[in-house]
C-alpha cells in the first residue's frame, strides 16, 4: 500500500489538526477505517476530544485575525499552491478515495480533479469579490457595498464525496478570508487525514499560522459541538435530510448561518422525441455510477409510453454489460456499496417496492461470489414503479432505478416535481418546446436542470445545490462565494453638509 505511505497515513493517525500540527496521539477513542472492497481494516484515526475541539476553535479564532487581513489575491495564491500540490498527489489521493469509499478509480480521480478545478476557480475568484456601487440620493455622497469574511466556517461532509465537497467549501471560504474546521464522515476518516497532510505542505512552505485549515474527527457528537457553537457563524453541511433538519434547527436557534446540501431524488424525463441511445448512456452513468451513492444519482426515469419498452430493453442490455467488482480494477464500472447497512437498505427498498406491486425488471441481488469478498456488492436494479409510492418518494442511497410511464408532457413535469427533494433534473428531448418548458418557471423545480445531459457529474463552475428538502444551499461556482461572507453597505459623505435621506428635515 505504497499510496497510503505517500499520503502520510500509518497505523494510528491523530485525527485532530490545526494545520501542520496534529493532535490526539494519546487519545483512547479511535475510529477504525475499513475498505468496503473486502472489509479489511486500513488504519485508525483518533477521535477528537472536547478539549482538543476547544483548542482547535481557539486556534482558528486567532488565525482568523491574521488571515482576514491577508489580501484576497494573496489568499488565492495559497489556494493556487494547494491546487498544484493536489495535482502532484492526484493518483494517490484518487486511489485512497477508491480504497476507503469504494467508488471506481476513474471516479476517485475525477473527485480529486474536482478539487483541483475548484482551487483554480477560487484563485480567479479571489480577485473578484465584487461589491456594487450605488447612486446616493444625497449630493456628494457615495454608496457602495463590500464583502467581509465571516470567521470560522464549519464544514460537515459525507462519505460519498469524501474530499471534493470539502474543497468546494474550503477553497472558496478560504479566499473569502475565513478559516475552516472540517469534520468529514466517520466512514472515511483517512481521506480527511490525507487532504490535511497535503494542505500542511503548503502551509509550511508559506510559513502560515496554525488554525487556518483545521480537521476534527468523530461522529455525530463532534458534529453537534460544531452546530451548537456560537463561535462558528456558518455551518455548511452535506448529508441526509434528517441530518440537515437537525443542523438547521440547532444553528437556526442561535441565528447562525447554514449552507445545506441534502438529499436528492433526481429524475430524467425521456421524451418520445429523445435521442434514446444518448439518453440510455447518460442514464447508465447517472444510475449505476458511484454505485448509486451520489446525491445527484439518477433515481427516477419518467418515460413517454411510446418509447418505454424500447428504453427499458436497452437499459437492461447495458446493465448486463456493466462489470461489478473491485473498484481498483480498470474494467470495473460498479464497485461495492459503502457498508452492510447500505446493502440492507437497498434490499428493504426492493421489498417495499414489490409489496406495492412494482416489478424488478433486472438486478437487485446481493453478490457474494468468491471473487467479491466483503458482501458489499450488489447488482444495480431496474424496476417499474409509480411515482407516488412511499418508497419512490424516498432517497435510497443505492443503485435502484425506478421506471415510471407518462403520456403527456405536463403529466411528466407534475410527476417529476412530485417529490419532496429538488436537487438535480434532466430532460432528454430534441423537441425545443419540451426543452424550454422544462427549463421555464413551470418546469423543473430543482436547483439543477439539464437538457440532454444526465443528472450527475455537474461541473464546479455552476452553483451546486437544490430546493425544497434538499435544503436550498449553493456551493462551488457562480456567486456561491457570497454565502461565506457578510455584506456591508457603506455610505460616505464628502460634502460639508449633513442632508438626511428621504428629504427629512431635522433641525438641531
Ligand atoms: C454529492 O453527491 O454530494 O454532480 C456531490 C455531481 C458531483 C458532485 C456530487 N459533481 O455528481
UniProtKB/TrEMBL annotation:
<feature type="domain" description="Aldehyde dehydrogenase">
    <location>
        <begin position="27"/>
        <end position="489"/>
    </location>
</feature>
<keyword id="KW-0520">NAD</keyword>
<protein>
    <recommendedName>
        <fullName>aldehyde dehydrogenase (NAD(+))</fullName>
        <ecNumber>1.2.1.3</ecNumber>
    </recommendedName>
</protein>
<dbReference type="InterPro" id="IPR015590">
    <property type="entry name" value="Aldehyde_DH_dom"/>
</dbReference>
<comment type="subunit">
    <text>Homotetramer.</text>
</comment>
<dbReference type="InterPro" id="IPR016162">
    <property type="entry name" value="Ald_DH_N"/>
</dbReference>
<dbReference type="InterPro" id="IPR016161">
    <property type="entry name" value="Ald_DH/histidinol_DH"/>
</dbReference>
<dbReference type="InterPro" id="IPR044638">
    <property type="entry name" value="ALDH7A1-like"/>
</dbReference>
<keyword id="KW-0560">Oxidoreductase</keyword>
<dbReference type="InterPro" id="IPR016163">
    <property type="entry name" value="Ald_DH_C"/>
</dbReference>
<feature type="active site">
    <location>
        <position position="261"/>
    </location>
</feature>
<comment type="similarity">
    <text>Belongs to the aldehyde dehydrogenase family.</text>
</comment>
<dbReference type="InterPro" id="IPR029510">
    <property type="entry name" value="Ald_DH_CS_GLU"/>
</dbReference>
<dbReference type="Pfam" id="PF00171">
    <property type="entry name" value="Aldedh"/>
</dbReference>
Amino acid at each position: 500500500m505504497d499510496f497510503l505511505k505517500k499520503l502520510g497515513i500509518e497505523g494510528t493517525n491523530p485525527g485532530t489538526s490545526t494545520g501542520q500540527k496534529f493532535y490526539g496521539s494519546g487519545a483512547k477513542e479511535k475510529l477504525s477505517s475499513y475498505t468496503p472492497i473486502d472489509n479489511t481494516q486500513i488504519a485508525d484515526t483518533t477521535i477528537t476530544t472536547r478539549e482538543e475541539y476547544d483548542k482547535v476553535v481557539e486556534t482558528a479564532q486567532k488565525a482568523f485575525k491574521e488571515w482576514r487581513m491577508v489580501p484576497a489575491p494573496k489568499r488565492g495564491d495559497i489556494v493556487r499552491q494547494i491546487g498544484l500540490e493536489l495535482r502532484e498527489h492526484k493518483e494517490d489521493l484518487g486511489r485512497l478515495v477508491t480504497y476507503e469509499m469504494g467508488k471506481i478509480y476513474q471516479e476517485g480521480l475525477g473527485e480529486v480533479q474536482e478539487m483541483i478545478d475548484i482551487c483554480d476557480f477560487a484563485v480567479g475568484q479571489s480577485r473578484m469579490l465584487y461589491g456594487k456601487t450605488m447612486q446616493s440620493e444625497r449630493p456628494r455622497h457615495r454608496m457602495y457595498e463590500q464583502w467581509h469574511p465571516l470567521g470560522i466556517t464549519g464544514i460537515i461532509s459525507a462519505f460519498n464525496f469524501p474530499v471534493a465537497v470539502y474543497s468546494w467549501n474550503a477553497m472558496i471560504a478560504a479566499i473569502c478570508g475565513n478559516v475552516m474546521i472540517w469534520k468529514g464522515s466517520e466512514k472515511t476518516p483517512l481521506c480527511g487525514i490525507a487532504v490535511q497532510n497535503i494542505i500542511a505542505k503548503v502551509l509550511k512552505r508559506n510559513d502560515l499560522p496554525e488554525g487556518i485549515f483545521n480537521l476534527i474527527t468523530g461522529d455525530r457528537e463532534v458534529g453537534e459541538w460544531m452546530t451548537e457553537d456560537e463561535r462558528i457563524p456558518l455551518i455548511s453541511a452535506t448529508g441526509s435530510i434528517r441530518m440537515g433538519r437537525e443542523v438547521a434547527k440547532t444553528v437556526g436557534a442561535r441565528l447562525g448561518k447554514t449552507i445545506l446540501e441534502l438529499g436528492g431524488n433526481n429524475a430524467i424525463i425521456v421524451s418520445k422525441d429523445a435521442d434514446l441511445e444518448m439518453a440510455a448512456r447518460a442514464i447508465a452513468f447517472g444510475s449505476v455510477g458511484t454505485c448509486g451513492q451520489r446525491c445527484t444519482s439518477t433515481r427516477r426515469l419518467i418515460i413517454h409510453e411510446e418509447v418505454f419498452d424500447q428504453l427499458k430493453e436497452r437499459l437492461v442490455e447495458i446493465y448486463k454489460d456493466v462489470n461489478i467488482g473491485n473498484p481498483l480494477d480498470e474494467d470495473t464500472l460498479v464497485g461495492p456499496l459503502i457498508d452492510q447497512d447500505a446493502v440492507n437498505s437497498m434490499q428493504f427498498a426492493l421489498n417495499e417496492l414489490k409489496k406495492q406491486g412494482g416489478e424488478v425488471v433486472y438486478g437487485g441481488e446481493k453478490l457474494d461470489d468468491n471473487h467479491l469478498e466483503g458482501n458489499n456488492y450488489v447488482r444495480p436494479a431496474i424496476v417499474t414503479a409509480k411515482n407516488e409510492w412511499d418508497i419512490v418518494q424516498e432517497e435510497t442511497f443505492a443503485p435502484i432505478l425506478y421506471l415510471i410511464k407518462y403520456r403527456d408532457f405536463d403529466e411528466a413535469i407534475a410527476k417529476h416535481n412530485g417529490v419532496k427533494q429538488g436537487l438535480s433534473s434532466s430532460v432528454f428531448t430534441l423537441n425545443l418546446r419540451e426543452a424550454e418548458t422544462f427549463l421555464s418557471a413551470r418546469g423543473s423545480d430543482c436547483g439543477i436542470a439539464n437538457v440532454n445531459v444526465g443528472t450527475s457529474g455537474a461541473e464546479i463552475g455552476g452553483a451546486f445545490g437544490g430546493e425544497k428538502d434538499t435544503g436550498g444551499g449553493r456551493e462551488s461556482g457562480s456567486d456561491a462565494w457570497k454565502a461565506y461572507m457578510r455584506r456591508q453597505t457603506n455610505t460616505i459623505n464628502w460634502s460639508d453638509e449633513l442632508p438626511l435621506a428621504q428629504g427629512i428635515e431635522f433641525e438641531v
